[in-house]
Amino acid sequence: MGCACTKQQPDQEEMVLLAAQTCFEVSEVEALHELFRKLSSSVVDDGLISKEEFQLGLFRNSKKQSLLADRIFNLFDSKHDGMIEFAEFIRSLSIFHPDAPQEEKIAFTFQLYKSRQTGFIEHEEVKEMVFAFLNESDLILSDDLLEAIVDKTFREVDTKGDGKIDPEEWNGFVSRNPSMLKNMTIPYLKDIGTSFPSFVQRSDPEDDINNLG
């Protein structure tokens, strides 16, 4: 049996509240609700976005495996209940708005790398994400070169030399390497339509290597 629980359509008061809490105007929140409605009904029409529906929106393929997409879904799912509600969708999407504060974008990328509940980014987590970014670029590197990139990146970020990256170190690293945030802004959100914005923006593989190194 499927879940009989569905989310009611947000009322005008909730739309106004979400606009006040994000970078969107009320009219934009309303337009994004139409996008949300399409996504949340693409597999099961229950008013919630499942991981399968999220993958379908990103890749037009719900079966594609992507660590990056999994991490983004988990960050959007702030209640950690396996589903994305409309309010979660709007608040998270707002971070990708061109007018969103840079500190919010930096904090989001920190959480994107930090998969464990330690409060720090560890060496293995950097390796996982470097591998994921290279995989998205269809770029194949030898294990030795991959390890060299990871080691160089980790040493550059871990300025305290304690084998872990804290938020302060990450903030400093991203500030020195602003290209790290290039995929954290979706210009589309200034001109909202009804097609799902892509978080996995294709870029030149050589640029990916330079950003990671």
Can you give a write-up of this model?
It is a single chain. The protein is globular, with a radius of gyration of 18 Å. By secondary structure, the protein is mainly α. The longest helix is centred in the first third of the chain and has 15 residues. Helix content is 53%, strand content 0%.
Secondary-structure blueprint:
Elements: H1 12-21, H2 26-40, H3 51-59, H4 67-76, H5 86-94, H6 102-113, H7 123-136, H8 143-157, H9 167-176, H10 205-212
Helix pairs in contact: 1-2, 4-6, 6-9, 7-8
Sum this structure up briefly.
The chain is mainly α and 213 residues long.
Please supply descriptive tags for the structure shown above.
single chain, 213 residues, mainly alpha
Total DSSP E strands? 0
| Structural shape | globular
End-to-end separation in angstroms reads 49 Å
The overall pLDDT average reads 84
Radius of gyration from CA coordinates: 18 Å
Tally the helices: 10
Low-confidence stretches: 200-213
Following the backbone from N to C, one meets helices and strands in this order, namely HHHHHHHHHH
Largest sheet: none
Give the helix proportion (percent range). Answer: 40-55%
- Percent of residues in β-strands: under 5%
Question: Structural class of the helices, strands and pairings?
Answer: mainly alpha
